[in-house]
Write a structure and sequence with these properties.
five-stranded mixed sheet, Nucleotidyltransferase, domain 5, Arc Repressor Mutant, subunit A, 46% helix, 16 strands, 3 domains
C-alpha cells in the first residue's frame, strides 16, 4: 500500500510537470517535454497520452513543417473539455465569465445593477441566475466546469465577506449562498484583478494593481505571486488617508483616498451621472470634468507615493474605471510621484493602464480554478 501511494503521488507530480510546461511555454513536442522535465521519453509519452485522452491537451501539426523523417507532433492546452467560472459582485454591476483551459473566454454576462443597500441574498440570487445560465451553455458546448471563484469588492477571510462598506455587507458567506452545482471559492476583487492582469494582461512579475471603481482596492504581485499579507487583507488602498481632516468615508474614517478619487467622488465633482458621461466630458475639455480628473489624480498620486516608499514599486497598473480615465488621471498622479519620490529614489514608478479594464477580476477569478487544474490534473483525470 505504501508503494502504491508513493507511485500515485509521483504520477500526479509528473502530470503537473508536463501540463505546467505546456501551459507556460506553449506548443511543445514530447521530446522537448522530456528535455524540460527530465522525465524519460516513454514516461512523457504515456503522460501526454493520458492528458490528451482526458481532453486537457490536444495535438497540433508537426513541429517543423517539411522536416524529413518523422517530425515531432506538438501538444497544446486544449479548451475542448474543461472550463471554469469567474463571478463578480461589484457595487454597480454583476458579472460572469466562462474561461476554458486554454485561456479562451467562451461566454460573458454582465448586468448593471446598483447593489448598495440591497439584501445580500437578493444580489447573490440574481448572480446565481446569471451563472446558472452560463453553466447550461457550458454543458451545451461539451465543457465540464471544474469550479468557480466569486470576486467581491471588500476584504475577505475564511470564506466570509468581512466588510464591504460600499455594498453595506458585513459577515456575509456569499459563495455558500450561491448554491451552484460546482465548488465556489471567495476572494477580494482587487486581488483577483491583479491575478487577471498577471495571467492575461501586461502586468509583469512585480507590480501593484489598482482597481478604481466606486471603491478603490489594490493587489500586489511580487515575483509572479499575489501577496496577501499576514491576514489576507493586504491592498485596501482606498482607505489610505490622504487628508485626516477630509470628508467622512463609509469605512468610518475620514479623508480616505476613496472620497477623493472614487467613482462617486469623480462623478459628483464633474457634475455628470456616469463614467461614460465623464469620459465624454473629459474628451470635450469640460472644465469641471478636467478639474475633477486632475484632483483625483493628485490624491491618487499621494496614496501611491506612500505605497512606493513602503514597497519599492517600479510598476503600477491602473484598472477598472481608472483605465478608461488614465489619460486624465495619470499626469497629475505622475507629477505628485515625481515631486515626492524623484529626489529620494532617483526615479519614479511607471504608471500604465490595465489592458483588461472591465474584465480583470472575472478573468482572475476564472483563472484561479484553471491554475488549480494545471497544478493538479490527476483528480480531474480520474473523474473524466
Amino acid at each position: 500500500m505504501t508503494q502504491a501511494v508513493r507511485h500515485d503521488s509521483m504520477r500526479a507530480r509528473n502530470l503537473e510537470l508536463v501540463l505546467g510546461e505546456v501551459g507556460r511555454r506553449g506548443p511543445l513536442t514530447r521530446a522537448a517535454l522530456a528535455e524540460l522535465t527530465g522525465l524519460t521519453k516513454s514516461t512523457v509519452s504515456k503522460l501526454v497520452g493520458d492528458l490528451v485522452d482526458a481532453g486537457l491537451l490536444a495535438e497540433t501539426g508537426p513541429a517543423r513543417a517539411g522536416e524529413r523523417g518523422r517530425p515531432g507532433v506538438e501538444v497544446v492546452l486544449s479548451g475542448a473539455r474543461v472550463a471554469s467560472l469567474g463571478l463578480e459582485v461589484n457595487v454597480d454591476y454583476l458579472a460572469v465569465c466562462l474561461l476554458d483551459l486554454a485561456g479562451v473566454v467562451r461566454r460573458t454576462r454582465r448586468r448593471e445593477r446598483d447593489n448598495r443597500g440591497s439584501r445580500p441574498s437578493t444580489v447573490v440570487r440574481e448572480l446565481a441566475g446569471l451563472a446558472t445560465g452560463v453553466l447550461d451553455e457550458a454543458s451545451a458546448l461539451g465543457l465540464t466546469v471544474a469550479g468557480a471563484v466569486l470576486a467581491v469588492s471588500g476584504p475577505v477571510g475564511d470564506g466570509v465577506v468581512l466588510s464591504a462598506p460600499n455594498l453595506g455587507w458585513q459577515g456575509v458567506r456569499a459563495a455558500a449562498m450561491l448554491r451552484l452545482p460546482v465548488p465556489v471559492d471567495l476572494d477580494n476583487e482587487a486581488n483577483l484583478g491583479a491575478l487577471g492582469e498577471l495571467w492575461f494582461g501586461a502586468g509583469g512579475d512585480d507590480f501593484l494593481y489598482v482597481s478604481g471603481e466606486v471603491g478603490i482596492g489594490a493587489g500586489l504581485v511580487v515575483g509572479g505571486s499575489l501577496f496577501r499579507g499576514a491576514h489576507g487583507l493586504a491592498g485596501e488602498l482606498g482607505h489610505v488617508v490622504v487628508s485626516p481632516s477630509g470628508p467622512a468615508c463609509r469605512c468610518g474614517s475620514a479623508g480616505c483616498l476613496e472620497v477623493y478619487a472614487g467613482q462617486e467622488a469623480l462623478l459628483r465633482a464633474a457634475g455628470v451621472p456616469s463614467v461614460p458621461d465623464l469620459v465624454a466630458a473629459l474628451e470635450s475639455g469640460t472644465a469641471a470634468a478636467v478639474g475633477a480628473g486632475a484632483a483625483a489624480g493628485e490624491a491618487l498620486g499621494h496614496a501611491l507615493a506612500s505605497a512606493v516608499n513602503l514597497l519599492d514599486l517600479d510598476r503600477i497598473v491602473l484598472g477598472g474605471a481608472f483605465a478608461r480615465l488614465f489619460p486624465w488621471l495619470a499626469p497629475a498622479a505622475d507629477s505628485v510621484l515625481t515631486a515626492r519620490l524623484g529626489r529620494l529614489r532617483g526615479s519614479v514608478p511607471t504608471l500604465v493602464p490595465s489592458t483588461l479594464p472591465g474584465d480583470a477580476a472575472t478573468l482572475g477569478a476564472a483563472g484561479r480554478t484553471i491554475h488549480r487544474v494545471l497544478a493538479d490534473p490527476s483528480p480531474f483525470l480520474a473523474r473524466t
